[in-house]
Structures are given as C-alpha cells and as structure tokens.
TrEMBL record:
CDD domains: PKc. Signal peptide: none annotated. One of its GO terms (biological process) is autophagosome assembly. GO terms for molecular function: ATP binding; protein serine/threonine kinase activity. This is NUAK. The keyword ATP-binding applies. Its EC number is 2.7.11.1. InterPro entries: Atg1-like, Kinase-like_dom_sf, Prot_kinase_dom. SUPFAM superfamilies: Protein kinase-like (PK-like). Keywords: ATP-binding, Kinase, Nucleotide-binding, Transferase. It comes from Mytilus coruscus. It comes from the Eukaryota.
Length: 266
C-alpha cells in the first residue's frame, strides 16, 4: 500500500473487491478514503478496476463521491476519494427509523439526481444498495462504490448490454437474477425501487434464494398497494418495480413527479 503520500488512520471495511481505509493527506491535512485493490497480471485486463476508475474520474456531481487520484504500483491500485463523515445509508436508516416522509423525500431525490447523472453519461452503477449510498453530516447524499459500474454506450454510439450478473441479489432486477443479458441502466431502476422500500420500511421486500426472490418479485405490486406508505411512495415503487425492464419509468420522470408533488427541485 502507498504509505508515503497518505497516512492510514483506520480501516473502514473490507469491500467485495478491496479494502477501504480512512486516510490523511499530509500535504493538505484532508481526511480522505483510500480503496486498496490487488490484481494479478496486466492492469489493462482488469475490467472492473478500469471501469471503477473511469466512472469515478468522469462523474463530477454533488451527489456522487468525488475522485481525487489513483496510485498504481506492482499489482496494486489505490483509489483516493472523498470521505463521507456521516457513514452509509444502511446505518443511518437503522439509527433513525422510522425515517419521516420529508427526510425520505430529501434523501431519495438526491439519490435520483446522482443516478440520473450517471445514466445521462451512459454509465450504469449496477450495485445500488444502502451500503453504497454515503451521507455527509450535513445530510448531503453521495453515491459511492462504482466497482461494478459499466459504460452502456460504445464509442460509436451503439448500446452495450450487460452479460454478467453480480451484485446484491436482494436489490437486483429479475433479469439479473435470471442470468439474462440485459440493459444495466434499466436494471438500476429496479434497484432504486427496492432502495426506496428499504428507506421507508428498514427492510427489503424480497428474501431467500434466487427462485424465492423471483416468485416474490412477481407479486410485488400487491404488496406495495396494500402497504401503509403514502400514495406518492406507492406510485414511485410501481414506476420502478416493473417485471419487464422496458416498462420501468426513467429516473428523470420519477424525480420530476416527486419534486412537483413535494415542491422540490429536480
């Protein structure tokens, strides 16, 4: 690990693809995050690492964790990023449950803005979960962990479909769980619906193994319409949680609906 430039304060977590450290930059005295990744062979052949670096370095948005630099040495990559001092959304929701409707709207609109910006730049996140949504102490939301992200448009303007099926199955769209080649941007929309459900109810709507989850996904419409959440949230669920990917409503449309209803900018 690069220890000459950044001083390790503590280990934050072991991510699926690497270790996460809280670090200090002696040159600026800024607290940052270092994501330490190991690989074997040629870095140019490490698709996930390359995609993460490419996504983070190109996506500059107030609700996306900001990229500082990348340090590469023999079979190691260290990605330096902004530090979110408020933890992640999973812990926040657990500590503040039930989250009031006003705060739900505030949090979710910020998440929608981040995902919409990704999609406008033809990037799918592919791992939208509460642990990958970070919070600053001022309650600014930061979408993070682009380790599974991918470009969804080629340099010639041709759509690129996703042919791997990684990610958290509890937040994955039906086509991902079934192992079907799919449009990753449309799969992100499903994950947003599950994420909103989690923020409101502090639990996910689906549990069990793949086949059990698929059965539950088929009846999610009935579950949502009989729930105790307000009509606006029911409507939002149903816009995103469509079994057929092409039936899902785009982020911009849902964001404008929520913003108009709650008098918020989107």
């Amino acid at each position: 690990m690069e220890r000459k430039t950044y001083k390790v304060i503590c280990k934050i977590s072991d991510g699926g693809f690497g270790e996460i450290y809280k670090v200090n930059s002696p040159s600026t005295n800024e607290i940052l995050v270092l994501k330490h990744l190991k690989f074997r062979g040629n870095l140019n052949e490490q698709t996930y690492i390359k995609n993460e670096i490419s996504s983070l370095s190109s996506l500059r948005h107030e609700n996306i964790i900001s990229f500082r630099e990348v340090l590469v040495k023999s079979e190691e990559v260290n990605i330096i990023m902004e530090y979110a001092d408020g933890g992640n959304l999973e812990d926040f929701v657990s500590e503040h449950k039930p989250v009031c409707n006003t705060l739900v709207v505030d949090i979710f609109i910020q998440i929608l803005k981040a995902v919409e910006f990704c999609h406008q730049n033809n990037i799918a996140h592919r791992d939208i979960t509460p642990s990958n949504v970070l919070i600053l102490r001022n309650r600014t939301i930061k979408l993070a962990d682009f380790g599974l992200s991918m470009k969804c448009m080629s340099s010639s303007g041709q759509p690129l479909l996703c042919d791997d099926f990684l990610g958290n199955k509890l937040f994955s769209a039906p086509e991902v769980i079934r192992g079907v080649v799919h449009d990753a941007i449309l799969a992100d929309l499903w994950s947003l619906g599950v994420l909103l459900y989690f923020i409101i109810f502090t639990r996910v709507p689906f549990t069990g193994y793949d086949e059990e989850i698929l059965v539950q996904q088929q009846t999610i419409g009935n579950t949502i319409t009989t729930s105790l959440c307000i009509d606006l949230f029911q409507c939002t669920f149903l816009h995103f949680l469509k079994i057929f990917p092409c039936d899902r409503t785009r982020v911009s449309t849902v964001g404008q609906l929520i913003g108009y209803t709650c008098h918020r900018d989107f």
